[in-house]
Amino acid sequence: MPCDGLSWARIEYVLLPVFVSAWQIECCGEPFAVDQVVRWQLLFTEAGRWHSEPTEHEVTLTGQAEPFEWEFVEHDRTDVRLRVGAAVLYWSAPEELVGAVTVTGTVQEDHHAGVPEDFPATTGRVRRIRVESRYFTEDPPRSREWVYAGPCASYRDVSTSPTRFDDLTVTRDGVRRRSETGVLVDLEVGD
Hints:
Layout: E1 13-21, H1 22-28, E2 37-40, E3 42-46, E4 58-67, E5 78-84, E6 87-93, E7 99-109, E8 122-138, E9 146-158, E10 167-170, E11 176-190
Parallel strand pairs: 1-7, 3-6
Antiparallel strand pairs: 1-11, 2-8, 3-7, 4-5, 4-7, 5-6, 8-9, 8-11, 10-11
C-alpha cells in the first residue's frame, strides 16, 4: 500500500496493431488522431489465411474464445468472440474454440458487414498512426487486375488519419505500381 494510505488499482493494457483499410476510411470512416479515444468493431484473422499480409500487421494474442452464432457464418468456419483483456474481436475461426487460446494473426477495424452489426465495440486510445504503402503488380499482364506484389510495405507516421489515399507511382514498364492501402494504428486498450 502507498504511504498515503490509498490503494492502487493495477491497470493492464493491450497494444494492438489495427489495420484500417483505405476503402473503409474513404467510404464512411471518421477521421481520428493520435491520443484520441475511439470505439471500433475489431476483426481478427489467423495468420496464413490470406497471403501477402505485411509482418507489421501480425500480433500474437492470448485470450478467451467463446463460440456464438451469426447468421452469416462462412462455410466450414465457426464464429468466435475472442476476448483479450478489454478488447473484443470477432473471428471466423477454422474450428470451434472454447476457453484459453493463444493465436497469431491480424486485427482490422471493420464497419462494413465483416463483423456482426450488434458485435461489441472495443474502446481504445490511438497511440500511433502510420500510412501504409504497398506495391501491386498486374496479374495477368494487361488485365487491369492488380494484386499485391508481396508482403512488403512501407510506412510513414502521421498525427491524423487521412480521409483520402493516393496511387503514388507506376513503374516505367507499367507492370508495378505503389498505392497507399490504409493506416496501421497502435491501439491501446486498457482493462
